[in-house]
Design brief:
The protein has 160 residues and is α+β, with helices and mostly antiparallel strands. 21% of the residues lie in helices and 39% in strands. The chain has two helices and eleven strands. The strands form three sheets. Strands 1, 2, 3, 4, 6 and 9 form a six-stranded mixed β-sheet that branches. The chain has a three-stranded mixed β-sheet with strand order 5-11-10, with no helix packed on it. Strands 7-8 form a two-stranded antiparallel sheet. Strand 3 and strand 4 form a beta hairpin. Bound molecules: dinuclear copper ion. Dinuclear copper ion binds next to strand 7.
């Protein structure tokens, strides 16, 4: 009886070490981690977020910006019920950093067929890096229920 207990305890400990190792390897060596909200947008209760965003870089100029050769930053604002900008054009193979936030309620930020999958929270900045290797058209959709016209909230991505 005691022998089995020991064996099970040993097996559990080994499995735990394997899982922790896989977790450490994926986050440290492979750089896989949860989408981060590395920034906050500071505003007081009396201020309108819409107005604050208009003056807060990079959200004062939503759109595509080349930050280095082959590296692009795409700044996106989600609002009921659209994305700003509505059309995003990118070259294939470029490293793209999406920097996004919401102007009003919680929205989703999802590009089907890719691992770009974030939540846009008012007052928080969400970031995700992705490389579109295949040219074509992609759809950026909101996948967090955000009201009556949630199902219409999308933007077009054109990768050339
Ligand atoms: Cu925005 Cu659903």
């Amino acid at each position: 009886m005691e022998r089995f207990e020991k064996a099970f305890l040993c097996a559990a400990a080994i499995v735990l070490v394997i899982f922790l190792g896989a977790l450490a390897y994926s986050s440290l060596a492979m750089g896989i981690h949860l989408p981060s909200h590395f920034g906050m947008i500071h505003y007081t209760a009396g201020q309108k977020l819409r107005r604050v965003l208009r003056q807060t870089p990079p959200f004062d100029r939503p759109g595509v910006r080349e930050i280095a050769p082959g590296k692009y930053q795409v700044t996106v604002i989600g609002l009921t019920w659209s994305f700003l900008p509505a059309v995003i054009e990118l070259p294939a193979g470029a490293e793209v950093t999406f920097v996004a936030t919401s102007m009003d309620v919680i929205h989703g930020f999802f590009i089907p067929g890719t691992r770009v999958n974030m939540m846009l929270i008012p007052g928080q900045v969400s970031e995700c890096v992705y490389r579109f290797r295949q040219p074509g058209e992609y759809l950026l959709i909101c996948h967090e229920y955000c009201g009556r016209l949630h199902h219409t909230m999308s933007a077009r991505m054109v990768v050339k």
